[in-house]
Amino acid sequence: MVLLILLTCVASSMQAQGDMSYRRNSLATVLVYHPEDEFGGEIYKAFDSLPIPDKYDDHTIAGARVINNRNIWGVQRRDSGYYKATYGHQLTASELQANAMHTEKLLNDAGIAKKMVAKWFGYSGGSVDEATFNTILIQERGQYNASDVDVALALQTTRGLARLSDAGEELLGQTFVLVNDITYITAEQEAQAAKVAMSVLGGLLDAFTGGSAGREMASAAGKIADSFTGFKVKTHSYLYQLEWNDSIAAIFYQYHYTAKPDPQKIQAFLDDNTTFRLKYVAHEYEFDKKSVLKGKYSRTELVRTICARSMDKNIVALAKQYEDFKVKTPVYEVLADSRGRIEGYAAKIGMKEGITDGSKFQVVQRVLNPETGKTKYKYIATVKAKKGAIWDNRYNAVLEEAPDATLPYTTFTKISGGEILPGMLLIEGKYRKVVE
Fold this sequence. Notes:
alpha+beta, seven-stranded mixed beta sheet, single chain, 2 domains
């Protein structure tokens, strides 16, 4: 079993129609490594080799990539570590809550929230006398003009403050940490459990009959169990959100932010251990009894494939449970026949994002409210995934020769609404920021 922490900085994503750039979710990942586990090393290798999902921008935090559970970042030592779900033991509600709160304290003690804010504002590091901040990353990921998020200018006008507030709400306020607690079940564990169970049943049978049929049955069952091969995981995911509001932003801009060297402000930022915090918001659990893959992978690739798919499933489930965590993706192409009649709409999402025949999405367009200077999302239409045209983009689906792995995209058909154009966003289910 191993704990994975995905530091997930999530920025709501919208873009002008016809423009394939959009505000992606930003994701950083951290592994909590359990060296005592048989598969711990291979899970570590799997984690280290997995790419950041293409629906996220990489927001990896330097120095927080790997955590050894025996010495957690040097900020906290807990002899019992995390409560670990082992074979035959499910985590109780109290254990889940303890893990969630333990991790929240760990993240905050390690200053992860402040490090994420520092990355958003391009903190240069180095000497206190020379360090500065900038808004380059916010400009790039939010598609703002430099003047829109120029802090010095923004603080002088109401409209400028509104644009800074919009950037905070759209980007920093949607910054997440996702902690994945992965427990593995091997074929050997299941085989051993099967042999023990059959031995007990065989002994009872012999006790009643006075023969040896029970022992013979247990021996045969043991051989069958030993021949089974596979690896399955149970994944508990804990979601945390960066606390960012107008009050926190005001503290940062007034006392910390500086685009030119200012040792006093930089030192104040480095010493501030209370303003920037992460809070626990949601939990998700995933276990697929059918996740066993046979005969197609080496042991290392087997671990990598199943871990990748398990994490993807929990990200999908959390997005449905907690709407700020929703993935948005642009309409890639309007599909038409030779006569120009629209047959559907293409998007680069699929089974990896949990798309099924019944999946319905809002199509929305990002607009700027001229009065408030803030982003709004205008409802355009409702679409659903077309049966038989859902892209299987799960990890290693092509290697498995899955039937729909070679599709270039998923096709959607319109249920209701107006004209859909490339670049408009698809958001699954309802989204509170959408206005009619």
